[in-house]
Write a structure and sequence with these properties.
CATH class of the largest domain in chain A: Mainly Alpha
Oligomer: homodimer
Structural class of chain A: alpha/beta
Distance between the termini of chain A: 36 Å
CATH superfamily of the largest domain in chain A: Dehydroquinate synthase-like - alpha domain
Largest interface: A-B, 43 and 43 residues
Number of strands of chain A: 8
Shape of chain A: globular
Number of domains of chain A: 2
Strand content of chain A: 5-15%
Radius of gyration of chain A: 21 Å
Strand order of the largest sheet of chain A: 1-8-5-4-2-3
Helix content of chain A: 40-55%
Largest sheet of chain A: 6 strands, parallel
């Protein structure tokens, strides 16, 4: 096991009807800015529950935080918060709304140009307190301190974290997910599955618990993912999906183990160049990464085959191939296509994708830092 | 899944050499009371590492916190802290030292008679900040807010928790466990294994992740427990044991699921009456609880048999019996005997044990609250 430091102070309030608990979490005298995405929280009753729980508190609504939240939009929220002497933020939505709210919280207290937080990794020492009401199980933002923000005018999509940007609390009510479109559930399952793999499928590191926990999350997703599509109102299924997605990226399973975020990094370029959903890029690239790196990841691929997919028959090569196939089949069963050609992307794009990776300094990816642009090229080619 | 609230703010600093990180965690101007048990931290070099890390800070040592820490001893520490204007506590030891330090931290700030915190469940709103250096993997106290304290003069052993008594941080250096006597390692493995069972072996509650995590901890303990006895200086084994024991009782696997703490409660009476180690009582009583409650726990016993012990052959009854036998064999392989007769305790004690259980209000135990004194009697009889 590698040395590690782990801390996660976010309080999770989980279950049907728990939005009412906002009344116990948000200070009585707070001036609250509720942040949200599109109009779904108005139509599905979530905003009404938030309103009821906030009661007599003074609150304002900032809606319109987009998927892949932009600096431009978020700075409008910062201005609105300042104009109205806001002292507390409440994100109501999915990962994009929560990511965006982390940036708003940091930007309000930041001395200088807030984009520096992302572009220059300017340290964030303070942030406005905030909580969240999660409505889309996917990214884990509700229980971590990371945030991805895009600058539309510059075409940048960048990441920051800070000890000050953990949500104070997150309310997870599985019934809020009942009305989600199937595509968002499908993407959410892939968004949760792939980061678990990225914290797991590297090389053996004598981290038995982290491995077992990761495998438990993967098995659970493989079970509840298809059920969540088939039975949108099955509470137990949605509850398991929601809690699993949160635990997928809250720091716990990644503590003390090597990690390989190549799938994410190569995926960001696909989104930037072709506008694919984040989950689509992950579903395309993960099987390709597994295939191209099957030698380097051999021991963990065999463990993954046996423990997650119960593949114990045949030679090592056959089991590894079967595990990669099972992964691809799972994504396709979730209705997320896994080949670039499924999205009308051809080999003509690969030079551009590699150039962008190099421009962004992504030239030594993977758990060994040896996924060079040449290896990334093989991955993209394999994904055609 | 049941509704739940979960939060755990303790920072874990894990790995060889990490005691030096105290320098980054303890405030520069703190006046520190280091609390400890017997002399082992002096002989094994841990105290020297603590000294070096604290550097120029002003600190005092309070040693002598006993296993099953007593109010009498802990109040001496409170007096010493007050005399020396202490404003920070650092527990260096195992679960008893950390439990005791939680009480010291609460008692110093408590307005009134501190024993009321335990005897009257007087709420603890404030506590002195404290961290810990763990030297014995067992109870999980290093990452939870619970504390058990005994009042020697009254013969009471009581429990309290408070949001204010989480350690700010805990340093877990597996090499500090190398010099532990085998008996403490053996007891520690049982002390970690049984609470996981108590948060798991009830009835199916549609909590897939909690189940998988619990099973992961149990499998890991079944693997590393005997290795830890056989190879005291195997870093990977001790590291896995240490992190597993912490995760066994930090709230995570118990969130959203039914629990059955009957084994613990019946065990406390055995310790009180016969002076058995806590782990010994658990090793005796868990197989008996499993046997007496095999019908009520049937579904989870079958799941436990299959997933933890890979028992898939034979009838349901045979698999359940085999799982109970496997549990008993595991404890015995850990050198912890599992029958009352192994400790020279006979059926003559049972009336006294039941009377004490009734006196302490333990008349409706288990996940259904239906472990009455009559059922507890069956458990003790089964354990003979």
């Amino acid at each position: 096991m590698q040395n590690f430091s782990y801390r996660n102070p976010t309080k999770i309030i989980f279950g049907e009807g728990q939005i009412a608990m906002l009344d116990a979490e948000v200070p009585r005298n707070a001036r609250v800015l509720v942040t949200s995405g599109g109009g779904s929280i108005k139509s599905n009753g979530v905003l009404d529950q938030v309103k009821a729980a906030l009661g007599q508190r003074t609150w304002f609504l900032f809606s319109g935080i987009e998927p892949n939240p932009t600096y431009e939009t978020l700075m409008e929220a910062v201005a609105m918060a300042r104009e109205n002497n806001i002292d507390y933020l409440l994100a109501v939505g999915g990962g994009s709304v929560i990511d965006g709210t982390k940036f708003i919280a940091a930007a309000i207290k930041f001395d200088g140009e807030p984009w520096d937080i992302l572009s220059k990794k300017a340290p964030v020492h303070d942030a406005m307190p905030f909580g969240s009401v999660l409505t889309l199980p996917a990214t884990g933002s509700e229980m971590n301190n990371g945030s991805v923000v895009s600058y539309r005018a510059k075409g940048d999509k960048l990441f920051f974290t800070s000890e000050a940007t953990y949500p104070l609390f997150s309310v997870l009510d599985p019934t809020t997910t009942y009305s989600l479109p199937p595509k968002q559930i499908a993407n959410g399952v892939v968004d949760a599955f792939v980061p678990v793999i990225e914290q797991y499928l590297t090389y053996p590191a004598d981290a038995k618990v982290q491995d077992r926990f990761a495998e438990g999350l993967l098995i659970t997703l493989s079970e509840v993912g298809p059920q969540a599509l088939a039975e949108p109102h099955n509470y137990a299924v949605r509850a398991n999906l929601m809690w699993t997605a949160t635990l997928a990226l809250n720091g716990l399973i990644g503590a003390g183990v090597p990690q390989d975020w190549a799938t994410h990094m190569l995926g960001h370029e696909l989104t930037a160049l072709h506008g694919l959903d984040h989950a689509q890029t992950l579903a395309i690239l993960l099987p390709a990464v597994m295939s191209v790196r099957r030698e380097q990841k051999r021991a963990k691929l065999l463990q993954y085959a046996e423990r997650v997919w119960k593949l114990t028959e045949g030679s090592e090569e056959e089991r590894i191939t079967a595990a990669i196939t099972a992964t691809r089949s799972f994504f396709e069963r979730m209705t997320v296509a896994t080949r670039l050609r499924d999205y009308q992307i051809t080999g003509d794009s690969i030079d551009k994708l590699i150039a962008k990776l190099e421009e962004h300094g992504m030239t030594a990816l993977g758990e060994h830092g040896d996924i060079t642009p040449q290896v990334s090229r093989e991955v993209y080619q394999h994904a055609l």
